[in-house]
Amino acid sequence: MYNTRPFTKLDAIAEAYFSQTLALSPEAVTATGLGTADQATLDDYSPEGNAARLDVARRTLAELAGQEPEDLQDRVTLAGLRERLGLDVEMAEAGESTAPLNVIESPAQSIRDIFDSMPQDSAADWELIARRLGAVRGAVDGYITSLRERLTTGPAFPLRQVERVAEQADVAAGEHGAFASLVHRGARLAPHPDLLERNAGAAREAYANLGRVLREEIAPHATEQDGVGEERYALYSREFLGTEVNFRDTYEWARAELARIDAEQQAIARELYGEGVGVGEALSRLDAEARYQLHGVDALRDWLQRSADEALAAVRPYFDVPEPMARIQAMIAPSNSGGIYYTGPTDDFSRPGRIWWSVPDGVDTFSTWQERTTVYHEGVPGHHMQLGFTTFLRGELNAWRRQGYWVSGHGEGWALYAEQLMSELGFQDDPGNRMGVLDSERLRTARIIVDMGVHLGFSAGAWADDDGAGFSGIGAGGAQARPGAADVPAASAPGPAWDHDSAWRFLRANVAMNPSFLTFELDRYLGWPAQASSYKIGQHTWLELREEARRSAVARGESFDLKDWHMKALRLGGVGLDILKKALQ
Q1: Are 104 and 527 contacting, i.e. CB atoms less than 8 angstroms apart?
Q2: Handedness of CA 255, 256, 257, 259 (dihedral sign)
Q3: Furthest-apart CA pair in the chain: how many Å?
Q4: Per-residue pLDDT, 564
Q5: How many Cβ atoms sit within 10 Å of the Cβ of residue 18?
Q6: DSSP readout, 381-427?
Q7: Which has the closest alpha carbon to 347: 22, 1, 13, 104?
Q8: Range scoring the smallest mean pLDDT among 89-103, 191-205, 335-349, 555-569
Q9: CA-closest candidate to residue 83, choices 400, 393, 549, 542
């Protein structure tokens, strides 16, 4: 289907760099299926491990000096390595990569969650799991050493993230946590169940200790300030976008987008249920309609699988779908964080791409009108089409480009573009499903306002008022009161700055999400600066580039070939948004 290009000097440098990073990351070896690091071990999160990773980045940057690209893919590789590794050095020098701590993407989660990606089908699989469980204590201890180091070097840990991760550690250490679940699942196949149980017990003890250290040693020195300020936020924004944006302009754009989405949702509410029915009431009615309901996680998994398979068949006119990508697997994650995510296939596709749903305790009813667009985002034509296809391009892209180069604005922006594409192609014409698409858009827009508002200190206006009145939004559903759901203050408007409480009121009024999910979402935005904004900013870039390509084709007197444009863009793999623009323009 695609040509094999000769590998170049820059390909060799990229592959050598990726090989060195894999040697330092047994967890990445599990995730990608590449490398030879012992998968019975875990990453080294100690200061020595951090220094080793930084040294690889600096040595590779030095090796890139004076290199000249031989073709387009070389130009992308060179620009990508310089940009990503340069950022790695900046982040390290600013102390940001020393013991990262947040509720979704830090060693506290990665050590626990890597076991989800390990095969669990044979005695040999469970023997490896049992041995790796024995490495948890060392990995956690190394992370604790880095946490203590950062107490003296800074930047300060946010207290809210410290407390929430301590709670996560307590759950992992408990009788119903991820490690105890491994013992239960492996009871039948594990060749040495005593080793599995003993090492799982040690892992639980390690996480119990992590929770204690966070509460007793880290929390007393943590800051109650959630926002990181413009200087730190700008660094994170570049990391997640691969470009620079004007924050105030982007915030104002998000304000306008929220008003547009609100108007469209109001129109659909009237279409569904008649005049006088608002968005909040329409969403409640949709949740109550039996045709949109699923009961139990088994039904959820079956629906996810069926929906993913149907989407895979439906997009073939608009994408090339190589045979190895023709399988996607729906999974219920053992953890209960509330997250929904995708894990890519191994390099040889022996493990397929997977959609994971981490269902919170006590949640057993799910609404398909709200979640169908998630299938397109995490699966097809979203992350599976993007990451699976990149993995497939063994003959065109070096290993780092295929499995090691990820920029959130590009990847998550593509996934949001995929959601919109399916609507454009007619796959969301049902009014309930269209409301779900807009609900997804509303979430991604509202969180730009929260993310930038809190971290950059923009004005919360009347949302900062806490007079006990409900807001006229879609989530809180209280009495009519100012501000309205889509009534967002300008960045420089008078009034206090956004904080956790005003952000919570705003999200409750603007996001139709179970409070248990939304609580996790807000904690995530506060602890992971700029990441939440990267989705819709990236989507906007993808749509702009597609429109540029369409106009260019028309100017040349040609028809615009959507499938050809998709495949040209996906053949680049994961890149920063600046590099994406240059490559496609």
Answers
A1: yes
A2: positive
A3: 71
A4: 96
A5: 25
A6: TTHIIIIIHHHH-TTTS-HIIIII---HHHHHHHHHHHHHHHHHTTT
A7: 22
A8: 335-349
A9: 400
- 559 pLDDT band, cuts 50/70/90, is very high
- Identify the weakest region by mean pLDDT among 353-362, 399-408, 496-505: 353-362
Distance CA 68, CA 66 (A): 7
- Quote the crossing angle between the two packed helices 193-213 and 123-133, to the nearest 10°: 30
Dig out the tokens for 392 from the structure: 């497939």
Mutual angle of helices 47-64 and 136-153, in 10-degree steps = 80
Q: Which residue has the tokens 């398909």?
A: 368
Q: How far is 42 from 418, CA to CA, in rounded Å?
A: 34
The helix or strand, by DSSP H or E, that contains position 553, with its residue range, turns out to be: helix 531-555
**What mean pLDDT do residues 245-250 have?**
98
Residues 102/109, Cβ–Cβ less than 8 Å = no
* Structure confidence at residue 337 as a pLDDT band (50, 70, 90): low
What is the pLDDT, as a whole number, of residue 468?
Answer: 42
Rounded CA-CA distance 110/135 in Å is 13
Check residue 341 and report its DSSP letter.
Answer: E
pLDDT confidence band for 3 (50 / 70 / 90):
low
Q: Is 196 within 8 Å of 125 (Cβ atoms)?
A: no
Residues in the chain: 585
Amino acid at 248: R
Confidence of residue 367 (pLDDT cuts 50, 70, 90): confident
Q: For residue 224, give Cα distances in angstroms to 219, 227, 246, 519.
A: 10, 9, 27, 18
Distances (CA, A) of 575 to 77, 242, 381: 9, 8, 18
pLDDT of residue 483: 63
For helices 136-153 and 193-213, the axis angle rounded to 10 degrees is 10
Q: 366 - beta bridge partners?
A: 294
CA-to-CA separations, 397 to 72, 83, 482, 570, in angstroms, rounded: 11, 18, 54, 11
For helices 178-186 and 123-133, angle between their N-to-C axes, nearest 10 degrees: 150
Instruction: Reply yes or no on whether the pLDDT at 474 is more than 80.
Output: no
Q: Give the pairing of strands 328-332 and 353-357.
A: parallel
From the number of C-beta atoms within 10 Å of its C-beta (0-12, 13-18, 19+), residue 566 rates as buried
Q: How many CB atoms lie within 10 A of CB 12?
A: 12
**What sign results for the dihedral spanned by CA atoms 94, 98, 99, 104?**
positive
Phi, psi of 329 (to 5 degrees): -120, 130
The yes-or-no verdict on residue 478 having pLDDT over 70 is: no
- In this model, does residue 470 exceed pLDDT 60? no
Residue 283 scores a pLDDT above 70: yes
| CA proximity to 581, closest of 536, 547, 531 | 547
Q: Label residue 264 left, alpha or beta by phi (over 0 means left) and psi (-120 to 50 means alpha).
A: alpha
Q: Would you state the torsion angle of the CA atoms of residues 536, 541, 542, 547, taken in this order, to the nearest 10 degrees?
A: 130
Q: What is the mean pLDDT of residues 151-174?
A: 97
- Would you call 335 helix, strand, or coil by DSSP? coil
